[in-house]
Specification:
Chain lengths: 552, 552
């Protein structure tokens, strides 16, 4: 069985028709959900591209892998999905975005070069690369945001788009009435059509790459097809740009009470520029329809891909995973972007189709188990029939759920956020190590712990599913807070770095040193069978103890 | 300035005359103490050889480096003192024991071979090796405990000791009246002289190697001279074997109350074979004098080394550190060996001589700051005048204390113990991840947290310096326990894996993406200076939005 691991970027869990969106039809996401399981309580381990993806790809919490924000390199030697899957005989390929930043210093220290297979895999987060494109070819006076080469820009140039950066000037910009670039970076342009042939835009292009890969891939393969959309810039080519409009824009899920006695960290985020933009209805009325259009385009392209899998017979022997690296506030909670832990940000869609007979009973069902994105790495290893190395992988296989079982399961999910590189850190005047947030959610209560001496935040999603009422403003819920802090403490003491010795190896080693002569408890040797001390017995030979010089 | 980092194995903090031992004279340890600072509250991060040393050598807590017990490999890529010092231009050499176990799987995964300089350093915990000998050439029916080559055994053979394993039959055994080997593994033989010329025994041999190294070393060098003694087998050559006797053996520091309502983990350790042996006065009466003899020999050899440093001028330009990887219960608390967190086990001697003028004011003084062994790595980097990379090294430089300052300092020390590979784990019926202990000590209260659902242990060293009365047996000290658990939780949430990005790098990166065109908050672009969006402006060129095919 192959594994097709599809990730979208910044796709909210509730912007799918199978998730209940009132007007956005996503028939192809639904198509996979109808044949698989849709997980309704799936949480990423950090609501930001880089750190979230590093957790997906290592199967480890952010505090365990340390690549805590965008651009923080993943340390050399950290094991990835690719390493785990290759051990089982499955190749692991990348088509698209990882947001991986190579640990150049570590590579140099270990003498690894990117032009060796091993070095390349280290540099590419364990993937073999079919195409690597992180999808954000932003460019300013200091140059490109992404210093890698851009296969997508090269493609556009080969298609005749004459510009230095056609991603910026065509795929992510429209044309205004004066014939000038109307960049998708500006929300006022979100409702304009991107100045590009639809089939040349990013999502179709990456889908073409995915199909090309699949057609030549040697089974068993894992392909990580990793789209940039619907991540900003919020602009999409015709016909998607006006498929939706203000009538499709839901009222923002936000309440004045959220800004009263607001938690200081939430407060500075609510004051940032993107929050200010999304607090405007005119911005939401343009951006959200574009966002929806991008998702609809994703859905159409998913349909192409699924059709191809059907036609080629791959649907029979390929597990399909659809997910996202985090969500998008879109103005909910007075915020834009992601970063914090409300549902629109930290919860993600997760749909898994397992083609095998064992998964028959759960087709089309919904599962509300508390899932962490790091469960996917464990699931893939388990799907290969290999033991999940739980001294390295911190998630748990989802196969039991897919196969209709009810396994012993976790009682809470964890997510983390490091905002030390942001303007919010500067505003709060904090040193980097203090700029860290932890979420613990037990299915009902969601607590955010903030380092730096702040009080926590607490929501009761049973009585307040909109997460408006921060119950940590007073002391009415101190009992719950204490309980959750106890669980968070337990999590903090977890074994996460004992990556070179499995539980099984430890158990097998017990007592081993006795038979290798390590016997530091003998009074006269009669305490153990003679064979254990035989090397320590027998004729002494020369006696050196009679004189200092060894003479007899 | 060079750094001579001398470590003894299993040397108790109180078995030195400068530490107040009533009968054991250690004039050379005292000699260094008289010229330096003796730290009276120095604690190792795990009271067991392997894990303690991995913490010393990485400058990181056990939970951070993961090599939690003897034989658990240190993961490939983990930075070591050697890496940090080489960055500053100082070489870092090993003479003796490290207890390092190579991460063979990780080396293979990264294509590193032990015959390359990089691979060798990875395999040897970051050291360049003058001589590597872990000092425990135990041998049983299943072969040698240590699969490396034994330079010491090779030396003995070259000196005419005819045996397959002269370490076992000569250096660590005597001769009985029948001319048979009287092994030092048996405590009944502890008072016999080892069957070896004193100058050929382990401590003089290693001292010879150290002198040889120093005489040819290129400054600036760091030499880790790492002795196996006074670690068992408890046997020493003449004249040391009868230098001390039962009159020198202090009463065991133990009390019946320690065994009442005993903490389950402490209880199973008190029932193990070595504890049983050390609960016998006849064992203590033989072993402790041998232990003292081994230490006296260490002191005499230290004297040789110091004399050589004086004669060669190296005393003027070499920092000297004397310490141990953990202690030895010797029957205190009804225990033998180490493993647990009472003072005789987890506290170690630490004497530092800094030859520079800045250290003049503290010569011969004593410092009671709460020190962790991981402070040494930070101290060495600081001594090189380099910034201590505190996103990797978790200890703090001791230089301020050596130079007479009173720096902001820690409020508690942490130590950890993983007993998953031991018989105690089997007795308690626990899975490996539950076999973990944590100590937190604030200078007065010492708490041990035990995973696996056990209650903690608590001692008040101000009112109960002997650590007899476990205040966690009842609830009289719940307040202190809660307070310490709060601190332990904080420690559990520390940043330990963000090893690829320093605080300084994070601060320097803030705002950087704006000038690289990442502007996800613009409504119309007027929010930022024009130059930031200039690439996104200008003539659009071909307009593809007019028709699906791109025709005008």
């Amino acid at each position: 069985m192959n594994i097709l691991f599809i990730m979208y970027d910044q796709l909210r869990f509730d912007y799918l028709s199978c998730a209940g969106h009132p007007t956005l039809e996503t028939p192809n996401f639904d198509r996979v959900a109808a044949r698989g399981v849709r997980f309704t309580n799936a949480y990423v381990q950090s609501p930001i591209c880089g750190a979230s993806r590093m957790s997906f790809y290592t199967g480890r919490y952010v505090s365990s892998h340390g690549a805590a924000w965008n651009g923080f390199p993943l340390r050399v030697g950290e094991m990835t999905m690719g390493d785990h899957l290759r051990k089982t005989g499955m190749e692991c390929w990348l088509i698209g975005k990882t947001h991986m930043r190579v640990d150049a210093e570590g590579m140099e220290r270990l003498g690894l070069t990117p032009d060796s297979v091993i070095g390349a895999r280290q540099a590419e987060c364990g993937f073999d690369v079919w195409v690597r494109d992180d999808g954000l070819w932003a460019q300013g006076p200091d140059g490109f945001y992404d210093s890698n080469r851009s296969p997508y820009n090269e493609f556009l140039k080969s298609k005749g788009y004459e510009a230095e950066n056609p991603w910026a000037t065509n795929a992510n910009a429209s044309v205004d009435e004066d014939g000038d670039i109307a960049s998708g970076w500006m929300f006022e342009n979100a409702d304009k059509p991107a100045n590009i042939r639809e089939e040349d835009s990013e999502t179709p292009w990456l889908t073409d790459q995915a199909i090309e890969f699949i057609d030549q891939a040697r089974a068993p393969w894992c392909a990580h097809v990793s789209y940039i959309k619907p991540h900003w810039p919020y602009i999409v080519p015709a016909p998607y740009h006006d498929m939706f409009g203000p009538a499709d824009v839901p009222a923002a899920v936000r309440h004045d009470v959220e800004r009263e006695d607001v938690h200081p960290v939430l407060g500075v985020f609510q004051e940032n520029k993107i929050a200010a933009a999304f607090q405007r209805e005119d911005v939401r009325d343009k951006v959200i329809p574009a966002y929806m259009g991008l998702i609809r385009q994703c859905d159409d392209q998913l349909g192409r891909l699924l059709d191809h899998l059907e036609a080629s017979g791959r649907m029979e022997d390929t597990m399909i995973v659809l997910t996202s690296d985090h969500g998008d506030y879109l103005g909910d909670h007075w915020l834009g972007e992601k970063d914090l832990f409300h549902e629109p940000s930290v919860k993600v869609p997760l749909i898994i189709y397992d083609p095998r007979p064992e998964a028959e009973a759960t087709r089309g069902s919904v599962c509300d188990a508390l899932v962490e994105s790091i469960d996917l790495a464990a699931t893939f290893v388990d799907a290969r029939g290999a033991d999940v190395p739980d001294h390295i992988l911190e998630g748990r296989s989802l196969l039991p759920w897919l196969h209709g079982e009810t396994p012993a399961w976790r009682d809470y999910v964890i997510s983390e956020y490091d905002y030390s590189a942001s303007g919010q850190a500067v505003k709060l005047g904090l040193e980097p190590k203090a700029c860290r947030l932890f979420m613990i959610f037990d299915g009902r209560y969601k607590m955010m712990h903030a380092e730096g001496g702040f009080r926590p935040m607490l929501f009761d999603l049973e009585t307040d599913p909109d997460e408006f009422h921060d119950l940590a403003k007073g002391d009415s819920h101190q009992h719950e807070i204490d309980r959750l802090y106890g669980l968070l403490a337990q999590w903090g003491w977890r074994v996460s770095q004992r990556v070179t010795r499995s539980d099984a190896e430890i158990k097998a080693s017990r007592g081993g040193s006795l038979c290798k002569g390590v016997l530091p408890f003998l009074v006269d040797g009669s305490e153990v069978p003679e064979e254990l001390t035989s090397i320590y017995r027998g004729p002494a030979g020369v006696d050196y103890t009679k004189g200092r010089s060894g003479d007899d």
